[in-house]
Amino acid sequence: MQYKTIVLQMLEQQPEIYNQLRKERQVLPAMEHYARELRSLHLAWQETLNEERPDSDPSQIASEALELALKDLKDRLPSGSPQEGQEALSLDQAMAFIRRHTSRG
Asked: Is the pTM above the cut of 0.90?
């Protein structure tokens, strides 16, 4: 499974966040962090789905688990632009968010 490739594509789909990560030279650490998170989510969903449907095809379970993991991860990623009714993050707030979510400890 190419979790890093998937995560990189997700980050690139959010140009404001991706460009800020590039500017701060944080694309690789962010990608690695979120790839580990995606892998963990994927494995957890596989386990859950296997318990719920033990007779299901393993490849179907893996596929469905990845879809659920991707949705979970997308929900955790910072949004590049404010949603309706939300104020845009300042650069300092965005960087603090990114650093919190890419630190190793």
From this structure: no
Q: How far apart are the first and last CA of the chain?
A: 25
Q: 74 — phi, psi (to 5°)?
A: -60, -40
pLDDT at 78: 75
Per-residue model confidence as pLDDT tens digits over 2-48: 999 999 999 999 899 999 999 999 999 999 999 999 999 999 999 99
Helical axes 3-12 vs 58-76, angle rounded to 10°: 40
Q: Do residues 46 and 58 lie in contact, with contact meaning Cβ atoms separated by under 8 Å?
A: no
Q: Rounded to an integer, what distance in angstroms lies between the CA atom of residue 5 and that of residue 13?
A: 12
Residue that has been written with the tokens 């379970």 in this structure: 61
Give yes or no for a contact between 38 and 69, defined as CB atoms under 8 angstroms apart. yes
Q: Any residues with CB less than 8 A from the CB of 20 and at least 6 apart, and which?
A: 91, 94, 95, 98
